[in-house]
Amino acid sequence: MSKISRRKFLAGSVAGGAAVMMTPAKKALAAGSFEGFPDGMGVLVDFTRCVGCRTCEAACNKEQNLPAPAKPFDDYSVFDEIHHGQPRRPTSKAYTVVNRYETKEEGPVFRKIQCNHCNEPACLTSCFVNAYTKTPEGAVIYNSKVCVGCRNCMIACPFHIPGYTYESVINPVIKKCIFCYDTRLKEGRPPACVESCPQQVMTFGKRAELMNIAHERMRKNPEKYVDHIYGEKEVGGTGWFYISGVPFEELGFDTHLPKEPIINNVKDFLAVVPMVLAIWPALFTGFHLLATKGKSHGHGDDHSHGEEGH
Amino acid sequence: MVRAGRQLITGLGVLLLSAVLAVGCFAMDDFPDEVEIDSLANLYDGVVFDHAMHVDMTENCADCHHHTTGTGVVDEYCAKCHDGAEDGDTVACQDCHSANPVSPENFHSTPEAYSYHDDKPNLKAAYHLNCVGCHQDVGGPTGCEDCHAKTDAGEKYYHSGEYAPKQDPHQAAHH
Lengths: 310, 175
Known about the structure:
The complex is a heterodimer. Chain A is 37% helix and 13% strand. By secondary structure, chain A is of the alpha+beta class. Chain A has a single domain, classed as Alpha-Beta Plaits (2-Layer Sandwich), CATH 3.30.70.20. In chain A, a hairpin with a 3-residue loop joins strand 2 (97-103) and strand 3 (107-113). In chain A, helix 1 packs antiparallel against helix 7 (264-309). Chain B is 47% helix and 5% strand. Chain B is built from ten helices and two strands. Chain B has helices spanning 2-28, 51-57, 62-65, 76-79, 93-96, 104-107, 123-138, 144-147, 152-158, 169-173, and strands spanning 34-37, 47-50. Chain B has a two-stranded antiparallel ribbon. Chain B is globular. Chain A binds chain B through residues 49, 51, 53-55, 58-59, 61-62, 68-75, 81, 83, 88, 91, 189-190, 194-195, 197-200, 203-205, 209, 212-213, 216-217, 220, and chain B through 43, 77, 101-102, 107, 114, 118-119, 121-122, 124-125, 127-129, 132, 142, 144, 150, 157-161, 163-165, 168, 171-172, 174-175.
């Protein structure tokens, strides 16, 4: 191998590596500024209105043809249930649940839990078979036909939403709230839970418009609400977002989530991977060659050193 | 004949006057004693609302009716415009609150910028927010079936009563 060809090889590798490095960096920038589809629908959830009647749970069960519940939907003993040290959470058989939280100022406050339909869903970015889709209408849906049941999304979801059909031995899959996409949202209708609610805890509309309404409610009644809209900024913004009369941590919300989408945690790292793969072999080959090049002269040095010793 | 005619006129006059007075008095308490709220009945039966009892309990019609009954509004926010001098043409909840939960008029009273009547609860929510909100404050009944009985369709919907799940201890232990 001549010296010239080696130099050409090194130069080419570095240029290639730089090109590879630039491409994902640009993509990462574009993805980070994505704030949801402009006309995406959302739901504003106002916990000051919820009385814990569980009608939304019944509505979801009917709409999604879910299996019969273990207890009737007007049985309020479920609020005392603790599973593995935690209150109830959505499962493959119940895409939404209402829990009761004892708070310092307001006494019992009820909170409905379901998929938040993130602007940049972590479940979607974690899925290696592309089972998840964020639709322009705002729903995060999934294709259970391609789901291989790896459960990456369950770990990725910052809200612990996706449920798993553990009972299915042959083909276990993920199941979660899909914003009633197939039966309602696609046609512009609100999800079943929203429509069923007697207290209009949930308001359905364009996410951007609902955000204004949330801010207006808080402006008109500053003493009624804590000054925070959970989901406005969390993990890059969520389609469903919340206003409350008590601090969100008292309702079991994770208030330490980043403002950026979860994918941003790994995006920088992932952008480095191609660079490492492309540049490091060339770079260290270069170092090695430089090191071995020095060796041929090194004999002379050794000799001179040896001579000095004499 | 003349005398009889005069008597008749006087009689009619008195009758007319008393009728006017009666209407005048009635106008001040022109409310029904009972209101049957059943336009949305489905999972639950309608409610026979004891309006007279609630009138006795409250000091101000505006506690429930905003400004539409001509009494001063309770909400400071509404009082900015509605000082109580004006009677509404209508006072029934459903005249302003849409039974359609996703009617665009719930969002925007006018298509322009945000204005005061935006974000209006739908009819079902207007009833419940009004009733339950007050009942919570004064210790009135707040359970669903304290006010209206569940229908057969409702029991089916909630998987309760006749349609309640069979007690299966194994299933109950799991979730």
